[in-house]
Amino acid sequence: VAVTLGDKSAGLKIEIDAVLIMTPTPERMRLRTTVNLDNGLARTEFRES
Predict the structure, then answer these.
(1) How many domains does the chain have?
(2) In angstroms, rounded to a whole number, what is the distance separating the alpha carbons of residues 35 and 49?
(3) Model pLDDT, residue 8
(4) What percent of the chain has pLDDT over 70?
């Protein structure tokens, strides 16, 4: 997990790099959530690695 605080335009970024344990094979995925510190709106991106 990585948390980055940018300027006002970037806001707060939370990045999670995880392995989802599933059968028959584990899946690697990345989640990135950006929170706008001015209005509290959040956006989450999901990507497979």
Answers:
(1) 1
(2) 23
(3) 65
(4) 90
Tell whether pTM > 0.70: no
Nearest to 42 by CA among 13, 22, 3, 1: 13
3-state per-residue secondary structure call for 1-49: CEEEECCCCCCEEEEEEEEECCCCCCEEEEEEEEECCCCCCEEEEEEEC
For residue 32, give its domain range. Answer: 2-48
pLDDT tens for 12-42 read 788 877 777 777 878 888 888 888 777 888 8
Distance CA 36, CA 42 (A): 6
Q: Which residues of 22-35 are buried (b: 16+ CB within 10 A; e: fewer)?
A: eeeeeeeeeeebbb
